[in-house]
Amino acid sequence: MRALRIFLIVVVVLGVLFVVVDRVAVHFAQGEAADKLRTTEGLATTPDVSIKGFPFLTQVASGTLDDVHVGIKEYDATTGTTGKTIRIEDLNADMKDVTFTGDYSSATAQTATGTAHISYADLLKDAQTEPTDLGLGFTGQVVGLAYGGNGKIKVTVDVTVPGVSAHQKATVLSTVTVKDNTVQVHADNLPKLAGVGLAEDRFRQASDFQQAINQLPGGIKLDKVEAAKDGVEIAVKGSNVRLAG
Fold first, then answer.
1. Nearest to 191 by CA among 150, 134, 110
2. What's the pLDDT tens digit per position in 136-159?
3. What are residue 189's phi and psi, to 5 degrees?
4. pTM score, whole prediction
5. Contact at 8 Å (CB) between 76 and 100?
């Protein structure tokens, strides 16, 4: 009985030591991966990297991590226009079946899915920077974006009247979609402005716009987009996503 107790104590102690070593190892690996990702993507702050699953050491031995969560607070994506970027906030992605090198200098996920946020203020910066010619001497410019309810964006267009300093504000509810890594905002119905008979296609040149979002981390792509209270929520996905290297 005494020998059995000693054996059980040894097993428990070894189990505890294994857990401690495993947790120390995963903490070190998360830190290394986060530093590599920050350098690779040129991030201003270190991202959050969380390696899921237990035990970690057996995953290391197999050369593949089952599930890795990556969180990036802010990321400036390119827009396709030279020198211009758009701010992506709260980018969170779950990476599945991640293969990696021993020093974590290179890591690739077989698949990835996640979410991110773009504020209306950031989306507005690239909507229309200059007034659009609406014909008959009128011009229009998007001056406001807000949540319109029921998954719609409320777009406010400032219309100038020719020959006078008067302005009219026109608001339209618009549908937001994504295609080919580009967010598209399209008015559902156009307003009737007092005393103004503008052609629909002309007004749409001001009210409708699209915003390309390129070079997201690891090569992930836009999948879906939905209007929300404080901005648009986007879903991202990808395959063979490179976390580092």
1. 134
2. 777 888 899 999 999 999 999 888
3. -140, 145
4. 0.83
5. no
